[in-house]
Specification:
The chain has a single domain, classed as Alpha-Beta Plaits, CATH 3.30.70. Strands 1, 2, 3, 4 and 5 form a 5-stranded antiparallel sheet that branches. By secondary structure, it is of the alpha+beta class.
């Protein structure tokens, strides 16, 4: 299992829309996330800075393949068409990232 953290900004005028979307995530999206071996997935919001912090645990063996399958899913692309305009990615993110991945510096079970 691999713990993963990521961060992105949230456009101030889209905060309520983003919250509304995530109060009722489409069942197909939840199933897709699970089928891509992601568990214990949470997104936290820090206001008024409007930072989103995502955390999940990856339980698969081929992260890149699972993420490619997720990105290719037509229903997920539709979901992202609502979520992506709400988000404000960091200029400092790595090439190919939307959410900036974070390094683990401490963990306690």
């Amino acid at each position: 299992m691999q713990r993963m953290g990521m961060v992105i900004g949230l456009n101030p005028d889209k905060v309520e829309e983003y919250k509304t979307l995530h109060r009722a995530v489409w069942p197909e999206i939840l199933a897709l996330i699970s089928s891509c071996h992601i568990r214990n997935y949470s997104i936290f919001l820090k206001e008024p800075e409007n930072l989103l912090f995502g955390y999940w645990e990856y339980h698969g063996s081929d992260f890149d393949a699972d993420m490619a399958r997720m990105a290719a899913d037509k229903r997920n692309q539709e979901w992202w068409s609502f979520c992506i305009p709400c988000q404000k990615p960091f200029d400092t993110r790595r090439q190919g990232e939307w959410w900036a991945m974070m390094q683990t510096v401490f963990h306690l079970d």
